[in-house]
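call fold(seq) -> tokens
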Amino acid sequence: MWRSVWRPLLARRAFLALCHRHGAVVKFHCTSSAPQAPRERAVVLGSGWAGFRVAKDLAAAGTLDVTVVSPVNHFLFTPLLPSTAVGTLEFRAIQEPVRTIPNVHYHQAKARDLDLASGILHCEDIFKYHTFQVPFDKLVIATGVKTNTFKTPGILERENQEVFFLKHLYHARGIRSRVLECFERADVPGVSVAERNRLLSFVVVGGGPTSCEFTAELHDFIVEDVARWYPDLRPSVTVTLVEASDHLLGSFDSALRGYVDSLFKRSGINVVTGVSVKAVENDEPKDFNSIRTTAILSDGSKIPFGCLVWSAGLSPVKFVESLPFERGPTGRILVDAKLQVLGYEERIWALGDCAANQDKPLAALAQVAEQQARYVARDVIGGHRSNNKPFELFLLGSMTQLGWGKGVVDMTHVGNPHGNEIGLGTISGPLAFIMWRGVYFTRQLSIRNMLLIPMHWFKTMLFGRDISRF
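ret:
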């Protein structure tokens, strides 16, 4: 230990002696001990595509004290979420913890109230409901949205029992457990034919990319794994996709919509369009003392089911609804061309699914939220005057995978949807599937996930999906 103390002193003395010998003048400068001015406090609400990216960019700049408040302590790579619901991928392979962002404070809590006058955010932790305050100089609202049930009777009452949403990892985990439960219960000796058919009836509500991808993943699970491990149950399985409009993937090119319709019909998936689910009813039959659930459609038809996945529509979260800001017809916070909340410029920004520009509204897409986050980070860091150009989206196209070796890519509207666009055509089939996997593999935020995801893909292809229920 004495060496670490005396060696620097001896070296300094030798250096001074050498300088004195050659007539050199040595000056020592002492650093000021005066405290530095505190940095401005930037608070980010949300950890999704917008929140995670803007927090990461703000922290990397090193000029602000960044705090993230979110009830979810990870970023979720949502395009791969349907794959986890049936075991094609594992849950932890598609998430990134918020605390992996360097130089960021994080609170796992919900924002409950906003004091604009004093710049105080009132929060409540998700564990013990303890309330606390977070002061801010600049606030970025990226809370996202929740699933819209359209007040359909029975949906919330049976949530996480027979009815599930598909927006978070715990949703996918619940779906996976319920699907396996349905197969195990249907294989119990003595179950009636009617009950077995109900348990093995799976209903998906919504015709967007998430619904279609989950339906395709579920179909692959049935064809590749159920047929192997539950061969006697395979003939009783039915999959029904219900969409209120006339077509699936309504935002895609008409040729791709036709491809998806014909593909699902050839695969034995019941596609029901032009009708909606009006209610979910349940009764208690005498056999096996279970709850029998039935979806009631707008045309009067009924579909008994064992598991229903609801992925239709979006609505604002309660915190956004409580804010005193102007909101559009769908409940999204109105922002100007620079994504600043109207009336609170240079202080509060809103972006992603929870915000919209009234003159140039954009779809609730991951690529929209991510591009907005990069723009807002530059605006917050540099100040209002350093970023005079309004936000402009460059749409990269849309893609959806439809099971192993199948997919669609729509590049007919590449560019600014409110400016210059170019049409690069459409792709369907195996090439689209390869593009889908290739793009989302390269978009991962960590080397860990770039290793885990192809590993799970290979494992599923070689050994099948895990059917353990725990």
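Confidence is low (pLDDT under 50) at residues 1-11, 18-33.
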